[in-house]
Structures are given as C-alpha cells and as structure tokens.
Amino acid sequence: MSNSAHPSTSRSQISPPALRSTQNELVVIAPNPHESCRLTSSKFLIFMSKPTTFTSVGEIRAALKNLPRPLALVPTMGALHDGHLQLLRAARQQVGPEGTVAISIFVNPIQFDRSEDLQNYPRPLDQDLERCCEEGVDLVFLPESSSLYQPDHSTIVTESLLTKSLCGATRPGHFDGVLTIVLKLFHIFQPESAIFGDKDFQQIALIRRMVRDLDLAVEIIGHPTIRESDGLAMSSRNQRLTQEQRRDAPRIRRALLAASHLQKTGEQNREIYLNAAREHLNKNALQEFKIQYLELVDQATLQPIAKVTAPTILAVACFYDSIRLIDHVSIDPTKSD
Ligand code: AMP
C-alpha cells in the first residue's frame, strides 16, 4: 500500500507557506495573507489552504516525521469555543511540554445529513487560528475536502450496533461519516492519543468501539462537557441561535437534570423519566422549539431500556428552527450520592 497517490509531486509544487523565524516565535505566512498567523512558543503550523489531492496528506506525513512524540490529536470542525480549548489543554497535559499537540479543523461534508446544516456551519478561520496560537498548539491541519475525498471515494466505516439508537437512528449516515474521517485522521497522524468530548457521548462510544474492533493503537481520552454559566452545553451551533432562542436554550439542561433527580426517589419507570423531561422541555417553549428524540438508553449498549436499574443515559436532541442541539445526563442507580 502506498501512502501517496502522487509520490512524484514535490514540495515546491504546492507553494508552501513562507516561514520567518525571529528570536522566540515562528511566523507562518500562508499563500492567502488572511491565513497568516504568528505563533509564539509553538513549533510548527501547517497550512493546507490550497492542497492538491493526496499531496496534502503526504505533506503532513512528511512534517510529522520531524515532530516530537508523543502526539495527541484533537479532531474538530472548527468554530472553536472553550469546550474545544479544554480538549487542547487536555491534549497538552497528555503529551507534556515536549510532545506535539495537533488539531484538525475540517467541516467533514460526509457526516452531514442536511445540506442546510453543512452550508450554515460557522467557519471563523482567523479566530480559530488565533485560538490555536494562544493555546500553544503545535500543528493545525486544515485540509480541503478534495484533499481527503476523491470524487469517486467509495469506502466508508460503518458500525452496526451502537449506531442503532439516538443520533445514529435520526441522522442517517452521520456516524459513517464521522468514523470514516476519524479513521483517516488516525491513519494520517498515527497519534498516541486522541481527545474527544463526552458531550457527543454516542460519537465517543463509537470511536472507542472502532478502535477496539479494528485494533487501532491509539488511546481515546474523553473530556467532560464544558458548559456556559447557565448550563447550556457549549456548541459551535449555539452562535446561530437568536438572542431569544439562546435565552431559552438552558431549558434543555434543566429538563434533563429535573428528570434525572427522580433517581433519588428510587424511580425505575422509563416513561416517568421521559414524561418529566418532556414536560420541562415543552413548558412555555418557543414555537420553533421541537424535540427530535428524547430517550433513555443503557450506558454500555446505547439501546433503549425499559427500567432504570443499571447506569443509564437520558439523552435529547432538539431543534430551534433548523439548529440542532444535543445534550445528555447520566443516571446511575448503582451509586447513591
Ligand atoms: P466538533 O467541532 O463539534 O466536531 O467537536 C470537536 C470535539 O470537541 C468533539 O470531540 C466534541 O465532542 C468536542 N466538544 C464539542 N463541544 C464540547 C463541549 N461543550 N465540551 C467538551 N467537548 C466538546
């Protein structure tokens, strides 16, 4: 198997960014001036603003050969918020000051089930790069879709059990797209570890399953959900909410917590949990607010449960107009607090 489809393409053919080194900083000037970035105490920044197919992957592979190990990877779709930044800090903790923290920023088209969502996904690249600089990220991978997917790409990764519920059931093909891009990134970076948010708990469960089932040599590290002060889980999509919707959105967290508190009374009945959460979600809700799913699933299998007798997740996906938000809470009847 060859790593590069075009091994004869040389570095000079892809107009790499100019590098200017001063005493303690590295300035990287990308072909497109607005993508330039000043990196203080960082080692490398790789811009893939105008990559050619496969060459970009070849380039990043070549760069990776010179970067210190261990390497921790944080895959994202950009529009970085404090939740992402905490993942980057966890990555730094994982590899230490001498290791490499890498981030990928890529709005992966094949994981979007609604073209409207893909088109409107925020892409504040300058701000993202600034944040990466501030966090001391060593390497940013900004591939274009054409550098990762051939027009006739036809290989995808499908998980067939944990995807049956929740987002897997309501977003056809979504997790195929997620697992495919994550596997590609793992192959490209060969990271010792990769950091993901527990906010997307089905996603991280699937990635762990893929790593186990396909014998991948990467440690998957989960990071707790980072929230706004009013409890709303941070999400790149939050910035698309109107002011009124943003004020209303903490109801999602409140509803989950209110239902989960039933566990303290010894409640086991599935419907009672779901009704309690649904009632809070719908009470005086905005007209454009809609629940997509509200479900109680077993924490290990992610399959719906009839009775809360083992560690359980109460999960919700909802819409404000076309803006989709998710959240969940753990309910563990085996623990008394
Ligand atoms: P995204 O850019 O939405 O694909 O997310 C990239 C990574 O950040 C994923 O592993 C997410 O689970 C994680 N993430 C997103 N939002 C949060 C949050 N509020 N707290 C912690 N991790 C998050």
Polypeptide structure, described:
The strands form 3 sheets. Strands 6-5-4-7-8 form a 5-stranded parallel sheet, with helices on both faces. With 337 residues, it is of the alpha/beta class. The chain has 2 domains: 213 residues, Rossmann fold, CATH 3.40.50.620; 96 residues, 2-Layer Sandwich (Pantoate--beta-alanine Ligase, Chain: A,domain 2), CATH 3.30.1300.10. The protein has 11 helices and 11 strands. The N terminus is likely disordered.
Largest sheet: 5 strands, parallel
What is the assembly state of the chains in this entry? single chain
Number of helices: 11
Distance between the terminal alpha carbons, to the nearest Å? 54 Å
Second-tier CATH architecture of the largest domain: 3-Layer(aba) Sandwich
> What is the total tally of β strands?
11
The CATH superfamily of the largest domain bears the name HUPs
User: What is the total number of structural domains?
Assistant: 2
- Structural class comes to alpha/beta
Characterize the overall form. globular
What portion of the residues fall into strands of 2 or more residues?
15-25%
Strand order in the sheet with the most strands: 6-5-4-7-8
Average pLDDT rating? 86
Along the chain, the helix and strand elements come as: EEEHEHEHHEHHHEHEHHHEEE
Low-confidence regions: 1-44, 46-55
According to CATH, what is the class of the largest domain?
A: Alpha Beta
Radius of gyration: 21 Å
Which compounds are bound in this model?
adenosine monophosphate
What level of helicity do the residues show? Answer: 25-40%
Under CATH, the topology of the largest domain can be stated as: Rossmann fold
